Amino acid sequence: MLLGTAAHCQLPEPGKRAIAVSLIPEMSVVAPGETVALALMMRPAPGWHGYWKNPGDSGMETQIAWDLPAGLAAGPIRYPLPGRLIVAGLMNYVYERDYALLVDVKVPATLPAGTKLPIRARVDYLACTKELCVPETANVAVDLETGAATVAQTKRAMFDPFRQALPQPLGSEARFERIGSRFRMAIPVPADLTLREPYFYPLTDGVVPYAAPQIFSRAGDTLIVETEALSNGSGFGVVDGVLKLNEGTSVTLRATPGTVPAGGKPVKLAIQHSASGASAMLPALLGAVLGGLLLNIMPCVFPILSLKALSLAKASGDESAAKKEAIAYTAGAVLICLALGAALLALRAGGTAAGWAFQLQDPRIILLLLLLITAVALNLAGLFELPAVTLGGRLAERRGLAGAFWTGALAAFVATPCTGPFMGAALGAALVLPAPAALAIFAGLGLGLALPFLLLGFVPALRRRLPKAGAWMEQFRRLISVPMFLTALALAWILGRQAGVDGMALGLTAAMVLGLALWWVGRSQGRGAAWVPLAPAVLIALEVMLLLPVAAAGSAQAPLQGALKTEPFSEGRLAALQQEGRPVFAYFTADWCVTCKVNERGALQRQQVAKAFAARQVAVLVGDWTRGDPAIGRFLEKHGRSGVPLYLYYAPGKPAEILPQVLTPSRLVSMLS
Membrane-spanning regions, if any (predicted)? Predict the structure, then answer.
């Protein structure tokens, strides 16, 4: 402990603490059998600081003595990443700003609803300045009760940043060795992950001197840490600690004795990392363009692209008009992808663990898509004419350019449920790159989506290969309305999964009213007031959005039945299965993810896969991200993904294997051998 006099600092006022303490629950009503998170809020006064679990060369770990109702059990304290403070040559791991210590409390399943749960605790901690330390004690209390929590009774928006500040499990084992007076450790870290001022915070005491300089180098996908070793620091079976990767990103790790490779390329200061960021951006940008290109074969995008391609066939060789329309279509697709990317980055900056297609976690957005796709399908079926997608719009006129722009925007918006090859890694990289580079990747996704139409507009030879205009085009237009109607049905199913049967009934009612209004528009085509009936249909749609049941983010829903025996994913359950030595297959899905559902029906639910998994006792964990879940969002980010699907296989004693985003039964069966 640091000692000193009060001559150079100000003691806290009588009756006040140097660090104010309060206890905040994530929810005031908790279901029996569930776990509630409690945040011990620590607010140091200016000039004061508190300490991490391992305080370093001086200080004291926070101690909590719980007084809980019978049956309740409190877990260990979970600490956010600390900062470093050197005083008189001593290294301290400290918090100089407000911080939250999280504790999970398990509520017994046997308690009846309405049971009062008075939670009390005594907190002992050390508050210090650079000159003196004051031991302090705070008595904190909170009252909970059992029952069904509502959205209004939760503080998820407050707790998401708390959890985001916690180090996440590395997922792979590190190795360490001691050679003479040097301690060296090898940590699995992807080679394309940008590091900014990495630092290893030891949790195992007595291994290394805390104030000793740390040297980092990279050898492929391995980060090597080298520092001094304490003279008595030998004979350790494991070394635990936390590795800071960059600002806001850290991982917990456990290292066991083993061979550490020779040092590779030195890790330089953060200001010198721009080149590595650029090298990571180029593959991600290429992946985004290729991923966007593949989105054009999706059933909700292909009809729109087909319509625009056939409109070029009717343009009678007007080169200028074709180029203008291609540019307008591309601008619509790119701007929508940029807008979604900017919103995603803004949400993440605010502490929300959002990922690609985040908007589809809200059933109101699903309803909006349902109505939009229904309108497009009815238009293609010939019920009415909509200039934005009709075949007869004039390309060179202003209306034609506006139609091309909004068609590109529509294609980009309805393509968001799809994540195919190349996209997952590309959008995951966008989360660790600076905002301008991340936005460039989102723009690349829009460019890839618009690339076929852009090529048709600027390459006359490709346009000449298009079929000649004729009466068959109207029949083709009716035909491609079928996948749009099927998309609308799928959206209605997703709405039912998210908002229940009542929500699906409301959505179908709104779609029916919209269809009737558009039928009337079709009958009155060409009259000045033809679009008037849409006004009450829009009002009814808005009313349905207000009435639509919205479940809390991350709330569980019944899993779909299938051949595989599954259980809900949690990192705790994953760790427990790994300790048992069982192989684990973890996959992350969402009802609105087209690729996820194709993989589930075409590969995961096949009998040959189920038999192979059962023969080897493979545990299957399912992370459902349909309604959004901050814990799953952070786990996806840790594995370089910004959305679903993600497929991981954990063989006993080995790190996770990331599988392709398009699965086959043979790939899943061969994975086990």
Answer: 280-305, 326-345, 365-384, 405-431, 437-459, 479-497, 503-522, 529-552
Residue with tokens 């409390």: 105
- Do both 156 and 232 map to the same domain? no
Residue 123 sits in which domain range? Answer: 6-165
Selection from 637, 564, 12, 29 nearest residue 347 by Cα: 637
Q: Is 226 helix (H, G, I), strand (E, B) or coil?
A: strand
72 with 132, same domain: the answer is yes
Sign, CA dihedral 660-662-666-672, equals positive
Average pLDDT, the chain: 81
Give the mean model confidence (pLDDT) for residues 280-284. Answer: 71
Q: What is the pLDDT of residues 499-538, one digit of tens each?
A: 888 889 999 999 999 888 888 877 776 565 666 777 888 8
Q: Do residues 394 and 387 make contact, with C-beta atoms less than 8 angstroms apart? A: no
Which of 547, 575, 597 delimits the end of a domain?
A: 547
d(C-alpha 175, C-alpha 224), whole Å: 10
Domain count within the chain: 4
Q: Judge whether 167 and 251 are in contact, CB under 8 Å.
A: yes
- In the three-class reduction of DSSP (H, G, I as helix; E, B as strand; rest coil), residue 572 is classed as helix
Local structure of residue 601 (DSSP, 8 states)? I
263 with 293, same domain: the answer is no
Cβ neighbour number for residue 61 with a 10 Å cutoff: 14
d(CA 358, CA 350): 14
The span from the CA of 60 to the CA of 55, in Å, is: 6
Contact 24, 158 (CB under 8 A): yes
> pLDDT tens-digit profile of 201-238?
999 988 999 988 898 988 888 899 999 888 665 678 89
CA 377 to chain centre: 32
Query: Cα(first)–Cα(last) distance of the chain, in Å?
Result: 55
Cis omega (within 30 of 0) on the bond before 645? yes
Q: CATH number, domain at 652? A: 3.40.30.10
- In angstroms, rounded to a whole number, what is the distance separating the alpha carbons of residues 571 and 59? 31
Encoding tokens for residue 449? 């989506």
* Type of residue numbered 192: D
Pairing of strands 584-589, 619-624: parallel
pLDDT band, residue 166 (cuts 50/70/90): very high
105 lies in the same domain as 238:
no
Q: Which two tokens stand for residue 85?
A: 């403070």
Question: Which tops the pLDDT comparison, 269 or 491?
Answer: 491
**Residue 530 exposed, middle or buried by CB count within 10 Å (0-12, 13-18, 19+):** middle
Asked which of 165, 195, 219 is the last residue of a domain, the reply is: 165
What number of helices (H) and strands (E) belong to the chain?
Answer: 17, 25
**233: phi then psi, degrees, rounded to nearest 5:** -85, 65
Instruction: Tell me whether residue 20 is in a domain.
Output: yes
Alpha carbon distance 159, 152 (integer Å): 14
Q: Which of 590, 282, 599 is nearest to 420 (CA)?
A: 599
**15 and 84 in a common domain:** yes
β-bridge pairing 50-56 and 239-246? unpaired
Integer angstrom CA distances of residue 582 from 342, 588, 604, 617, 651 = 41, 19, 19, 7, 8
CB 309, CB 466: distance < 8 Å: yes
C-beta separation of 631 from 572 below 8 A: no
Is the domain of 15 the same as that of 45?
A: yes
Distance from C-alpha of 589 to C-alpha of 644, rounded to nearest angstrom: 6
